[in-house]
Protein backbone atom coordinates (compact mmCIF):
# COMPACT_ATOMS: atom_id res chain seq x y z
CA UNK A 1 0.00 0.00 0.00
CA UNK A 2 1.08 3.55 -0.69
CA UNK A 3 1.75 5.56 2.46
CA UNK A 4 1.12 9.27 2.59
CA UNK A 5 4.08 11.10 4.10
CA UNK A 6 2.80 13.71 6.52
CA UNK A 7 4.99 16.79 6.34
CA UNK A 8 6.04 18.39 9.60
CA UNK A 9 6.23 22.18 9.63
CA UNK A 10 9.69 22.60 11.10
CA UNK A 11 10.49 25.61 13.24
CA UNK A 12 12.62 28.41 11.83
CA UNK A 13 16.28 28.78 12.74
CA UNK A 14 15.57 31.88 14.86
CA UNK A 15 12.84 30.09 16.89
CA UNK A 16 14.84 26.90 17.40
CA UNK A 17 15.73 25.66 20.88
CA UNK A 18 17.07 22.25 21.90
CA UNK A 19 13.75 21.44 23.60
CA UNK A 20 11.69 22.67 20.62
CA UNK A 21 13.78 20.38 18.42
CA UNK A 22 12.99 17.40 20.65
CA UNK A 23 9.28 18.29 20.66
CA UNK A 24 9.24 18.47 16.88
CA UNK A 25 10.98 15.10 16.60
CA UNK A 26 8.23 13.72 18.87
CA UNK A 27 5.63 15.30 16.55
CA UNK A 28 7.29 13.60 13.57
CA UNK A 29 7.40 10.23 15.37
CA UNK A 30 3.68 10.55 16.16
CA UNK A 31 2.95 10.54 12.40
CA UNK A 32 4.78 7.23 11.87
CA UNK A 33 2.64 4.13 11.38
CA UNK A 34 3.98 2.07 14.30
CA UNK A 35 2.05 -0.37 16.48
CA UNK A 36 1.14 0.93 19.93
CA UNK A 37 3.12 -1.88 21.63
CA UNK A 38 6.33 -0.02 20.68
CA UNK A 39 7.47 2.45 23.32
CA UNK A 40 10.27 4.97 22.96
CA UNK A 41 12.01 7.82 24.67
CA UNK A 42 13.85 10.63 22.96
CA UNK A 43 16.80 12.63 24.18
CA UNK A 44 19.15 15.39 23.10
CA UNK A 45 22.72 14.13 22.67
CA UNK A 46 24.95 17.02 21.59
CA UNK A 47 25.41 20.25 19.68
CA UNK A 48 28.02 20.26 16.91
CA UNK A 49 29.51 23.47 15.53
CA UNK A 50 30.60 23.29 11.88
CA UNK A 51 31.94 25.93 9.51
CA UNK A 52 28.65 26.24 7.61
CA UNK A 53 26.06 25.04 10.13
CA UNK A 54 25.15 24.03 13.66
CA UNK A 55 23.94 20.48 14.11
CA UNK A 56 21.83 19.22 16.98
CA UNK A 57 21.92 15.46 17.57
CA UNK A 58 19.06 13.50 19.15
CA UNK A 59 18.23 9.85 19.71
CA UNK A 60 14.92 7.98 19.97
CA UNK A 61 15.34 4.57 21.61
CA UNK A 62 12.63 1.98 20.83
CA UNK A 63 11.58 -1.27 22.45
CA UNK A 64 8.59 -3.51 23.06
CA UNK A 65 8.18 -4.17 26.78
CA UNK A 66 5.80 -7.00 27.71
CA UNK A 67 4.26 -8.17 30.96
CA UNK A 68 6.74 -11.06 31.05
CA UNK A 69 9.72 -8.92 30.02
CA UNK A 70 9.11 -5.33 31.09
CA UNK A 71 12.72 -4.58 30.15
CA UNK A 72 13.03 -5.41 26.43
CA UNK A 73 15.72 -7.94 25.39
CA UNK A 74 17.00 -5.42 22.87
CA UNK A 75 16.29 -1.87 21.72
CA UNK A 76 16.58 -0.05 18.42
CA UNK A 77 17.75 3.56 18.12
CA UNK A 78 16.93 6.17 15.51
CA UNK A 79 19.35 9.09 15.37
CA UNK A 80 18.15 12.53 14.29
CA UNK A 81 20.12 15.58 13.24
CA UNK A 82 18.61 19.05 13.07
CA UNK A 83 20.73 21.36 10.91
CA UNK A 84 20.73 25.15 11.10
CA UNK A 85 22.56 26.79 8.23
CA UNK A 86 24.83 29.75 8.98
CA UNK A 87 24.26 31.14 5.47
CA UNK A 88 20.48 30.98 5.05
CA UNK A 89 18.19 33.61 6.61
CA UNK A 90 17.13 32.81 10.18
CA UNK A 91 13.51 32.71 8.96
CA UNK A 92 14.34 29.52 7.03
CA UNK A 93 13.04 26.26 8.53
CA UNK A 94 15.62 23.94 10.07
CA UNK A 95 16.55 20.80 8.12
CA UNK A 96 15.99 17.38 9.66
CA UNK A 97 17.62 14.05 8.85
CA UNK A 98 17.55 10.64 10.53
CA UNK A 99 19.28 7.30 10.32
CA UNK A 100 18.85 3.92 11.95
CA UNK A 101 21.53 2.65 14.31
CA UNK A 102 22.33 -0.25 11.99
CA UNK A 103 22.60 1.85 8.85
CA UNK A 104 24.69 4.62 7.36
CA UNK A 105 21.85 5.65 5.03
CA UNK A 106 20.64 9.15 5.92
CA UNK A 107 16.96 9.81 5.31
CA UNK A 108 14.84 12.96 5.12
CA UNK A 109 11.41 12.66 6.80
CA UNK A 110 9.60 14.35 3.90
CA UNK A 111 11.09 11.96 1.33
CA UNK A 112 10.84 8.59 3.03
CA UNK A 113 8.02 6.91 4.98
CA UNK A 114 9.34 5.33 8.20
CA UNK A 115 8.77 1.57 8.44
CA UNK A 116 8.17 -0.39 11.63
CA UNK A 117 9.99 -3.32 9.97
CA UNK A 118 13.27 -1.41 10.30
CA UNK A 119 12.96 -1.43 14.10
CA UNK A 120 11.98 -5.12 14.12
CA UNK A 121 14.98 -6.02 11.96
CA UNK A 122 17.44 -4.24 14.28
CA UNK A 123 16.03 -5.96 17.37
CA UNK A 124 15.86 -9.40 15.72
CA UNK A 125 19.49 -9.06 14.60
CA UNK A 126 20.61 -8.03 18.10
CA UNK A 127 18.77 -10.95 19.73
CA UNK A 128 20.18 -13.40 17.17
CA UNK A 129 23.68 -12.04 17.78
CA UNK A 130 23.26 -12.31 21.56
CA UNK A 131 22.03 -15.91 21.27
CA UNK A 132 25.08 -16.84 19.20
CA UNK A 133 27.38 -15.56 21.96
UniProtKB/TrEMBL annotation:
<dbReference type="InterPro" id="IPR025663">
    <property type="entry name" value="AKAP_28"/>
</dbReference>
<dbReference type="InterPro" id="IPR053084">
    <property type="entry name" value="AKAP"/>
</dbReference>
<protein>
    <submittedName>
        <fullName>AKA14 protein</fullName>
    </submittedName>
</protein>
<dbReference type="GO" id="GO:0005952">
    <property type="term" value="C:cAMP-dependent protein kinase complex"/>
</dbReference>
<dbReference type="GO" id="GO:0034237">
    <property type="term" value="F:protein kinase A regulatory subunit binding"/>
</dbReference>
<dbReference type="Pfam" id="PF14469">
    <property type="entry name" value="AKAP28"/>
</dbReference>
Amino acid sequence: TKHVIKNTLWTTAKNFTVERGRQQIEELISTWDIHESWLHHSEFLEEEELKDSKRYHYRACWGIPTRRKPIPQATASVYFVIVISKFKPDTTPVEVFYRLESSRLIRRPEQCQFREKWLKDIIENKIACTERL
